[in-house]
């Protein structure tokens, strides 16, 4: 059965304006401004000859050179990863201490020992930083800052990160006493539904919240101006919509398709059932959107709550997402202990080994999530790419790091591979079909010609 969302019919014109791909001039202006505020140089975003926009080198890069550090626009740690890693809800750096990271994970996973009271006591001490592990000070982490709204779901590495996230989106999505949502109960229901079905809905909610908050900020500034001019008339509906468009601008730059149209067909779904599978996905998105509306609906931003926009935001993540990965300092810590000289290692192991044993093989799980990066998401695919997303030792937060994997000369397009490029032509094509295109890079053309 088709789902009907009245907002889609009521705001069809506004929705089409929000979803219109930006003109080359808008793209140019937006990325030029981003280059100035984020201080990146060496690359440019501009139209390609064949498929929308792309990223081009503005200087020469040697192999392994850093091409770009891209700060995410909206990102999230996967809900399932929150037990394993305590990270800043804004920059995704690990926080607390080695002791908190280990103690918290063991405690939350119930990995204490039912038979060993002395181990459990130590675990309790570790959790509360009353037991210091040997050499842990060599791996210092920023302290834990609570959410200003009082929820116990998100923590930060600094007051500035806490404030930045609050202003950016968390004030609407916080379940604490200071929340600016319409109802904490409705918000908790939305979050629970996302955690039980697909946590990509939380990312979409963040994208909508940050647009609403940006709109409110723009409107407040505009109202102030009007006040100054002693104009008593309220801003017209049309004017409000232009502010909403401005608030939406960063997301308008992302390549979009509706989630239910672009999501890959799972292996266990037969092609003959494709239409019904896509309809189920659409229903799921509708269910989630209704819960989100009960939590944060803003009457002045109604088009944002249409199913069309919701589906396109989620689709944008599906098509542009780069995994958010931050390596765990717990791994570095245990590697360091393992490398100690034999005599000292024996002594230290007495304290550390029981914890390592309790953690088991997953002792060093990374922070894992999904994020939208404004510039990396403009990079087109090649099966013979000249760049790759790769975190170096010093990259300790959620920014995307793009390194050259071949020399790149000024003017050349910077490309990455969306898939495992070591696969055969047919396998690569099958995977790229999920992104909705057939690759025509030089390697594909050559390999295809060789087959014929
Ligand atoms: C992450 S976006 C890349 C930026 C995109 N060109 C834009 O204008 O925003 C991915 C989309 O770009 C297009 N694309 C990327 N690489 C391509 C390629 N090698 N051949 C054809 N289309 C490609 C596809 O439409 C793909 O779904």
TrEMBL record:
Pfam family, one: SET
Official protein name in the record: Histone-lysine N-methyltransferase chromatin remodeling SET family
Keywords recorded for this protein, A-Z: Metal-binding, Methyltransferase, Transferase, Zinc, Zinc-finger
Coiled coil: none
Gene Ontology cellular-component terms listed: nucleus
Source organism (scientific name): Helianthus annuus (Common sunflower)
GO biological process entries: callus formation; epigenetic regulation of gene expression; lateral root formation; methylation; root regeneration
Residue span(s) of domain SET: 41-419
Encoding gene per record: ATXR2
InterPro entries in the record: ATXR2-like (IPR044237), SET_dom (IPR001214), SET_dom_sf (IPR046341), Znf_MYND (IPR002893)
Keyword Isomerase: no
A GO MF label: zinc ion binding
Top EC group: transferase
EC number(s) stated in the UniProt entry for this protein: 2.1.1.354
